[in-house]
Amino acid sequence: MENTAKLKLAWEKIKSATSVLVVGHVSPDPDALASIGAMLELLKAYRIKSSAYADNKLDEVYNYIPNENLISRSKPKSLADFSVILILDCGAISRTSLEPELRAILDRRTHQSGANTPYIIEFDHHESRESFADLEVRIPAKASTTEIIYDFFEVNKLEINKAIADCILIGLMADTGNFLHANSSFEVMAASSDMLLRGASLNKISERIRGTGTLVSLKVWGRALEKIKFNQETGLVCSALTAKDFSELLKPEERDSVAEVYGDIASFMSYLSGAKLALFLREENGRVKGSLRTNSDEIDVAKLAQGFGGGGHKRAAGFIQEGHLEETENGWRIVK
């Protein structure tokens, strides 16, 4: 089934639902939250009962995204309470933080013929790792999941109000690095222009989507740049911030406010002369989080991230490992 037909079927299923659960990935970024926000706005307009969930959502960081306050960090009590489950920007079933519950639904269908279970729809722009949804709209060529949502609105001739326009533009700007990355296609620019014509607030979004102008974020940038290591033979550029670095730089209440900076640091390193691959590591609560970036057509950082239990896109990906960072003569290693 072609994507246009899938998007039409998705709307048929959604508008006939008695209740919809909208799900984003764990530790949601602006694209995930804005995708949820846009769909919640649509569901409100059509008076369709809805709930939204994203595990480990940061408080106060993304409150500029419409409907962000409606997205819960608490798991829904029962997925059976929903007739449709809409999964956005998750990449894999494990990234939903609802894997056991979703697999239970799939298992019930297998063993109970005619079982009444939620219809699962997935919108995503990551490469496929496992197909599990009843209807999968997966388009890796899209810059963001909000770009897919833009197509969803266009195909189904649905009204895009200012809140939805803001959401779509936020996702596009976040996942293209403010239109600086190679995925800033003609289609991205056309959709962004359309959102501006529909009332999206470019200046407000630009100010909020990047936290690089605060003193706190500049401290993080300074320490990260100070610790850069570059292997000229391999083209690997890397930097890392340890728990000790964070304790010296930031107060506990300041840490969430710089969440968006880490991907920016990795992207910046990937543009350095001679760089083929950039890796930025940081310690958080007994875990090491890694951000991978590349501008080389020969490297697929999503595959590299998958080797560490993560995922993402060909040019931008990430992973999380239990343990702490230890500096070596040639770089850093993760010690469990």
A few lines on this structure:
The chain has 336 residues and is an alpha/beta fold.
Overview of the structural elements:
The chain contains eleven helices and 14 strands. The protein is of the alpha/beta class. The protein has two domains: 3-209, Alpha-Beta Complex (inorganic pyrophosphatase (n-terminal core)); 215-335, Roll (Diaminopimelate Epimerase, Chain A, domain 1), CATH 3.10.310. It has a six-stranded parallel β-sheet with strand order 3-2-1-4-5-6. Strands 7-8-9-10-12-11 form a six-stranded mixed β-sheet. The mean pLDDT is 91.
Question: What is the CATH homologous superfamily assignment of the largest domain?
Answer: inorganic pyrophosphatase (n-terminal core)
Number of helices: 11
Name the poorly predicted regions. none
What is the mean pLDDT?
Answer: 91
- Main sheet overview: 6 strands, parallel
Order of helices and strands: HEHEEEHEEHHHHHEEHHEEHEEEE
Strand content: 15-25%
